[in-house]
Amino acid sequence: MNVREHVPAVSGILSVVALALVFAAALQAIPQSLLPRAPELVLEAIPHVNAVLSATAVGTIVVGMRAIRRGDVARHRAAMLTTTGLFALFLVAYLYRVALLGPSDFSGPPLVEGVIYPGILAVHILLAIVCVPLVIYVLLLALTHSVPELRETRHPTVGRVAAALWLISFTLGVVVYLMLYVLF
Question: What's the domain of life for this entry (predicted)?
Fold first, then answer.
């Protein structure tokens, strides 16, 4: 199959597969016997490493957005591919940890625990889910089209939306980390 001619369909298939894996890990539906068990020190370090990956991704998204506004396609491409790599590392580490240990418990003050934290977490998760197909779509367009051709595709429009939502999701992810591991 020629991916270039079927970017929406391939994006849809890859999105379904990716989100199925995400939900399987998040809901602990993957048998733990299939996963190698890392030492506790590694499992405990994952949230902190992921916070650094997320904060770095915020920076690379901003760099990528600024670069494309200035017409610097090479820098935009490098920044967005770096963001994609950071996201992949984050996701593998996060899903590995949550598949083994389940989600982290939050215990802050009642107002924060009952309203603020769940609200921030819900928006973060919703945006992360929405970003998956958008990012896959713009990435496939970028990988299958030349720069002049990209201007004639939905890459610029969908890319702006994907980058903005991705930026918010990563930022909220850092906020969630701070609430879980630093503030409370």
Answer: Archaea
Full-model pTM = 0.92
Q: How do residues 93-121 score in pLDDT, each as one tens digit?
A: 999 999 999 999 998 899 999 999 999 99
Q: Are 55 and 169 in contact (CB under 8 A)?
A: no
Between CA 169 and CA 127 the distance in angstroms is: 6
Q: Cα separation of 181 and 166, whole Å?
A: 22
Q: Is the pLDDT of residue 1 over 90?
A: no
Select from 3.30.390, 1.20.120, 3.40.462, 1.10.730 the CATH code of 36-183: 1.20.120
Sole residue written with tokens 């020190």: 41
Q: Within its chain, how far is the Cα of 114 from the centroid?
A: 25
Q: Check residue 1 and report its DSSP letter.
A: -
Residue 166 CA to residue 13 CA, distance in Å, equals: 20
Identity of the amino acid at 101: L
- Alpha-carbon distance 121 to 149, whole Å? 38
Residue 127: C-alpha distances to residues 57, 68, 153, 166, 172 (Å): 15, 23, 23, 7, 10
Q: Residue 147 corresponds to which tokens in the numbers above?
A: 């720069």
Give the separation between CA 81 and CA 143, rounded to whole angstroms: 10
**Token couple for 21:** 């894996």
Here the tokens at position 79 are 């920044």
pLDDT digit string, tens, across residues 72-81: 999 999 999 9
